[in-house]
Design goal:
The chain is of the alpha/beta class and 430 residues long. The protein has 13 helices and 17 strands. Bound molecules: iron/sulfur cluster (2 copies).
Length: 430
């Protein structure tokens, strides 16, 4: 039985732009820039020095606590270790590797026990690849023996992005094998692969091979943004609501992105660290929208050029999708583990008006999937009234952009809530 989540919107999806071919194009960059911070948690410390030779898959940075290592994504020589532009952090210490194009590999031992599998997921540098970038081993460990439902998230509900869709159309077995590995670890009674109904080819491909995986259920959900958000997906699949401030494990669920499952399969069965990923390059401002499979550390500039270059009237380049992505001002930024898309737009889809005004129409309330009251959050953020913002649960805002998208007064709602959440966190610390 399918359940609905509250709110949500139906933007124009534009996914057909980048799905004309099923093949991935590959890029071998001259340089790979590997940031030491690509996950939620503590940054890595470089383990190499300038002049060292490295192979693909070699650990080049690691750290303590909530941290997973980073690896060389090309073979070659370390040219520099210095601050470089980063797509979400502004700047970050990075190891710069000059590609020797020999593609020399460094693989890991194949794990046997559950403990070894968890270590391998960490050692391979696996993080949530749908955008969250939370360390995969920590998420798996926290769910062991505590969940009855393991969910593979292939909703990919943001417009334009088709990276997970193309993974399912080309290498669905990697995802299903990854699910089988986490089934061993977590021992859930239900395994669900959730996909939205606007991915017909992927669904057809999955139907053709699911006979070999009888314990995996395929849930085809009606397309609606933001169905791919963890809490909304759990509600749509199980009817369970994750309370404010709680994690999916509190309702017996664990959710991983399909690309993360595929990365787990490659690490655990093939001994390969996370050194490459699929990236959608799309939007009206790019000549040849398509999906690429690229070494982590490839620059946005290289990818944009490989997709035919930017239109003269390009207004915005975004890392991620139009709803939740981060605008970029410098195309030297590298692809990181969580980069699923580079979106090139002729106009800003959610652009605020010059004189935004609230019409008190209430539309933002009706679409907010977290049942918040955006019009009041906006007013109280601008007035810096953190007590009211706490009372109205601003920290539950998932920054999905549904309110901004719907607002006829063109108020910069989501952008304002990012600031409001920061204000509240600072006030709560005090
Ligand atoms: S949708 Fe915009 S104009 Fe309407 S109540 Fe919300 S903030 Fe105000
Ligand atoms: S951005 Fe925040 S307030 Fe706006 S609809 Fe999404 S969750 Fe609700």
């Amino acid at each position: 039985m399918k359940h609905l989540f509250f709110g949500g919107i139906h933007p124009k999806y534009n996914k057909e732009m980048s799905t004309k071919t099923t093949e991935f194009h590959t890029i071998a960059p001259k340089q790979a820039v590997i940031p030491m911070q690509q996950h939620i948690g503590a940054p890595c410390t470089p383990l190499v020095k300038v002049g060292d030779r490295v192979r693909i898959g070699q650990r080049i940075g690691d750290g303590e606590g909530l941290c997973v290592p980073v690896h060389a994504s090309v073979s070659g020589k370390v040219l520099a270790i210095e601050e470089r532009p980063h797509p979400t952090l502004g700047k970050c210490l990075a190891v710069v590797i000059e590609n020797d194009f020999r593609n020399e590999l460094c693989t890991m031992a194949i794990p046997k026990s559950k403990d070894e599998i968890l270590h391998t997921i960490r050692d391979a540098g696996i993080v949530g690849m749908g955008g969250a970038a939370f360390p995969g081993n920590v998420k798996a460990l926290s769910a062991m023996g505590k969940v009855d439902t393991l969910i593979a998230n292939a909703c990919e509900c943001e417009p334009y992005i088709t990276a997970d869709d193309s993974l399912l159309r080309t290498e669905p077995e990697h995802v299903l094998e990854g699910m089988a590995i986490l089934k061993e670890l977590l021992q859930p009674s239900r395994l669900v692969l959730a996909v939205e109904d606007n991915k017909a080819q992927a669904i057809e491909k999955l139907h053709s091979i699911l006979g070999s995986y009888p314990d995996i259920e395929l849930a085809v959900l009606p397309t609606r943004y933001p169905q791919g958000a963890e809490k909304q997906l759990i509600q749509a699949l199980t009817g369970r609501e994750v309370c404010p401030g709680q994690l999916p494990v509190s309702v017996g669920c664990a959710v991983f992105n399909v690309s993360t499952f595929a990365a787990i399969y490659r690490a655990v069965r093939l001994g390969k660290a996370l050194t490459q990923r699929i990236v959608t390059v799309s939007g009206e401002a790019i000549s040849e929208p398509q999906n690429f499979i690229v070494p982590i550390g490839t620059s946005f500039h290289d990818l944009v050029e490989a997709a035919g270059g930017l239109h003269d009237r390009t207004e915005r380049v975004i890392s991620g999708g139009p709803m939740m992505g981060v605008a970029q001002s410098d195309l030297r930024v590298p692809v990181v583990k969580a980069t699923n898309s580079i979106l090139c737009l002729l106009k800003d889809l959610n652009g605020a008006a010059e004189n935004p005004v609230c019409l008190r129409c209430g539309k933002c309330v009706g679409v907010c999937p977290m049942k918040l009251q955006p019009l009041y959050l906006y007013r109280f953020t601008n007035a810096k009234r953190t007590d009211e913002l706490n009372r109205l649960h601003i920290l539950d805002c998932i920054e999905c952009g549904c309110c901004s998208f719907t607002c006829p007064g063109k108020l910069p709602l989501t952008e304002t809530f990012r600031k409001g959440k920061k204000l509240v966190r600072e006030a709560n610390k005090k």
